[in-house]
Amino acid sequence: MQTNILEYLENTVQRCPDKIAFANEETGLTFGQVSQQARSIGTRLHQAGCYGKPIVVFMRKHPTTLAAFFGVIYAGCYYVPLDDEMPRHRIELIFQTLEAGALICDETTRELAKELNYRGEVFSYEELAFSNADDAALASIREKQLDIDPIYIVFTSGSTGIPKGVVACHRSVIDYVEHLCQVLKFDENSVFGNQTPLYFDAYLKEVIPTLKYGATTILIPKQLFMFPIKLVEFLNAHKINTLCWVVSALTMISSFRTFETVKPEYLHTVAFASEVFPIKQFKLWRQALPKARFINLYGPTETTGICCYYEVDREFSEEETLPVGRPFRNTQVILLDENNQIPPVGQQGEICIRGTRLTLGYYCNPEKTNEAFVQNPLNNCYPELLYRTGDLGRWNERGELEFAGRKDYQIKHMGHRIELGEIEVIVNMHPQVRSACCIFDNEKKKIVLYYTGELSLAELTGYIKSKLPRYMVPNVTRQLDALPLTPNGKIDRNYLKTLYTEK
């Protein structure tokens, strides 16, 4: 039984050491180079006495960053990915939470690393990655490692403004990757186009399967996501055939009529997550790629990424939303109502998840861990953890899970309980709307709609009034050139709230 994610790399490097594993637009690393550099990094960190500690990897998005991650694991440590595009105050808050054993930087982050309030030892990637590996020392570390040992901490936004560090272990990642690969049918010919930053967990969908099969991951330059035609041309130039992107990155391409100029020539698998895919935009993708497989994915960081999937197998009207489907094998989704009981089919409940996919909790934050990772209220016989996602869902008559929004996106307005996502679905149906997002001013009790598109405010208001009851019609509607996005590519609702209060 596999107990360590490094076994993926070690098995593959024996088969295809000279094949490119990770690349960007300028350079690439073969599996042999990844292995050599990771083992060297592991050796040097071991010699520095860093066993069992978090190691900050503060590097630009680059193939060498991935080798640094694996090097940290070889040392018996767990990596904490940071990036120079992150706000400085956020990095400093993370440093306050961590007692990191060391920090690894590169030539682009070296100076900034000196300015940050980090008091531990700082290594440059170059001084770690090109020394001799100590095979005996690495073997000794491996003997002590268990599959429940942590391998990374990914920091997510906390409700109090303090980032929460989600800790994942070998077992949760292995369980995740094995079932993901079965569902998405990855193999050695998969060429992934990575969209997400490396300081989120989303990159696992591409990077670990690359190690498992001897596939290839191309790190797509961030700036291309501002130029949809050039982005699709990049996909074609690198023969990228598999995408695992957030929805907003896909709709950016389709909403600007990119497919009228150029289409992805090699794509056969398109997986998407993090947001609801507007059916209008989804249909544009299916029309452009009629032979491709489209898979809707769902899962929070606390369950090691994705835990549910739905491969689109039928047509949907623009009033419908795509289900998130069924849980992966060895994972159970339980819906619980306000009384911790299972609601009837078709009725909403909070999405709760159990299984080995659960992460270890929040780093140095037992209070938040105990709030989210709780004893299964349906089982009073032995300890059994559930993760309460804060998401709402319902089972449809086909046995598919439908995402119904966040608990904190559900509002009470004019005496009615409203899902802001329902308003967004209706607005996104308009042919001249590219994207839309609703927020709620809780102080003034106003629904605020932001949208991008060609139609005027008056035209959109008339359309909304013809489709929605009066209590769901936004009180304020504002048009933007583009909706703000988080670094991960999701719509930045917190920024929209700030934008609204500033005006």
Using the CA coordinates, give the radius of gyration. Answer: 23 Å
Number of strands: 26
- As a percent range, the share of helical residues equals 25-40%
Runs with pLDDT <50, length 5+?
none
The shape is globular
Instruction: Give the number of helices.
Output: 16
- The SS-based structural class is alpha/beta
Strand percentage lies at 25-35%
Q: Let me know the largest β-sheet.
A: 9 strands, mixed
Mean pLDDT: 92
* N→C terminal distance: 58 Å
| Order of strands across the main sheet | 2-1-10-9-11-12-13-14-15
How would you sum up this structure, described in words?
With 503 residues, this protein is an alpha/beta fold. Helix content is 32%, strand content 26%. The protein is built from 16 helices and 26 strands. The chain has a 9-stranded mixed β-sheet. Strands 16, 17, 19, 20 and 21 form a 5-stranded antiparallel β-sheet that branches. A 4-stranded parallel β-sheet has the order 4-3-5-6. A hairpin with a 4-residue loop joins strand 1 and strand 2 (28-30). The N and C termini lie far apart (58 Å).
